[in-house]
Amino acid sequence: MTRMASVCRRAVQLLLALLVLTPALAFAQQTAPHAGGEANLVVPDLSQATFMGINGRTLLMTGLIVCALGLIFGLVIYGQLKRMKVH
């Protein structure tokens, strides 16, 4: 087989591969548009969910109150520590 025939055979194989793969790639791009991200998340209504008999909204607000109390506790301890004579 001559060198020219070998090059032509490889070129034909590449062209056939491109012809087969191009429609598949175009189809994949059309059916799966990139529409994800955090901005598109749907947050469920917490008042409709219950966790061990507690309303979801009530559980969330209770957790926020506990966090606020922890923050206040930390600030009070920090203030007491800062006023100590060694510091």
**Total DSSP E strands:** 2
Q: Round the Cα radius of gyration to an integer and report it.
A: 32 Å
- Regions with little confidence, pLDDT below 50 for 5+ residues: none
The computed structural class is: mainly alpha
Instruction: Tell me the distance between the termini.
Output: 90 Å
Strand fraction equals under 5%
Write out the strand line-up for the largest beta sheet, numbering strands in chain order. 1-2
| SSE string | HEEH
Helix proportion of residues, in percent? Answer: 55-70%
Strands, helices and their partners?
Layout (H helix, E strand, L loop, with lengths): L2 H29 L18 E2 L2 E2 H27 L5
What does this structure look like?
The protein is mostly helical and 87 residues long. Helices cover 64% and strands 5% of the residues. It contains two helices and two strands, in the order αββα. It has helices at 3-31, 56-82; strands spanning 50-51, 54-55. It has a two-stranded antiparallel ribbon with strand order 1-2. The longest helix is centred in the N-terminal third of the chain and has 29 residues, at 3-31. The radius of gyration is 32 Å and the shape is elongated. The termini are far apart.
